Amino acid sequence: MTTSAGTTATGAQVSSWRNAVVVAYGASGLAFASWVSRLPAIRDALDLTPGNVGVILLCMTLGSFASVSASGLIVLRLGSKRTIRTGSIMVGAGLLTAGFGTTVLASPVATAVGLAIIGLGTGSWNTASNVEGAAVERAVGRHIMPRLHGAFSLGTVAGAGLGAVAAAVSLPVFWHLAAAGAVVAVSVATAASWFRADITPVAGERSYSPDTFGDPTTGPIPVITAEDTADAPLDNKRKIAQAWRDRRTLLLGVLVLGLALAEGAAGDWVALALADGHGQSDAAGAAGYGLFVTFMTIGRFAGTVLLDKFGRVPVMRWCAAMAVLGLGVFVFAPVPWLAYGGLALWGLGASLGFPVGMSAAADDPAKAAARVSVVSTIGYAAFLCGPPLLGLLAEHVGILHSLLAVMVMLGVSFVLSPVARKAD
Fold this sequence. Notes:
By secondary structure, this protein is an all-alpha fold. The chain has a single domain (11-225, 236-420), classed as MFS general substrate transporter like domains (Growth Hormone, Chain: A, Up-down Bundle). Helices cover 76% and strands 0% of the residues. The protein has 17 helices and no strands. Helix 4 packs across helix 5, helix 4 packs across helix 6 (108-140) and helix 4 (71-78) runs antiparallel to helix 15. The model is unreliable at 1-6 and 201-233 (pLDDT under 50). One of its GO terms (cellular component) is membrane. It is a multi-pass membrane protein. Keywords: Membrane, Transmembrane, Transmembrane helix. The chain crosses the membrane at residues 20-41, 53-76, 88-106, 112-128, 148-168, 174-195, 249-274, 286-307, 319-337, 343-362, 374-393, 399-420.
């Protein structure tokens, strides 16, 4: 990753940096929820079966997985700022294309192309955001990664809410997604001006530990960044290869995988499962997804307190167990209101998998960029590949019962919880 030596961050710069990263996370959530909340409308406009929906989602998955697989090299080569900027612009263009394909062309192929572009932009953008977030977390001197991911969740709450309103008033998918894409691209491109992970070098001990969203009051703050490493002479490919051979990093990836699958399955299938499995309207389905992300947001903002008090391992165990319970209630609920209660538990349980996994992967700042990219790749494999495969399974057992497959990986995450313990 390109760096510039000799630059330290003042308190005001760290505050602006942190807030800019919050915007990047929030915009990512807004982009995701915007198209997910309109899946019922997209399905109806294109007359798709659950299997067809799965195939279209697979196009986004392939784009995302290709992007996230190469994200370590991309971030090390371009820097997190340029990667995030480029990714957000691609996502904005993808939203515009998907909306045009749905409303104007009524073409599943055009819609799939739009989702593939969204995937290509999202994968490397999210990995770069985690690298940038880990650098901010070390600058602040306390766990803030759950709250950064909470900003993503706030973005999904806003996106789901706007999606529910758009569905209720029958706003064409094109106009909805075009507006969302413009907001995402402009806000992130602007916020990236305050990113500092690419220009702030490794320094000594931290001198700053404020409240997460309070204003810094101290002077210059030494910052340890992901890209300034002790093994700088190594080329970027070798750094990534070393991370893929690290046992703890791989196990962290599998731990994140189960909880990411629970989050991704909800994102892609909750609205349809409520509509088809529990007899709810499209607007009620979008609102149900909004409920899920609302409780996931609550879990992420509460996560900092829980992690400080109990540590990563017990919190990860509680999350996996709660996700299993909520998922079971959602699937087997005899009445719709109970299904919504299951969504709340499911959202709380899925809330901390990604942020804790990213923080754990970045425990060693000298190897954070490479290890975060590896854990991201494994986690996104489930987040992205799982939901389309659930669509194919739903062809045989129905949408609701296909979600039971997620419980298997949640059990694996429960067992692997100890790997999240702070590295020495």
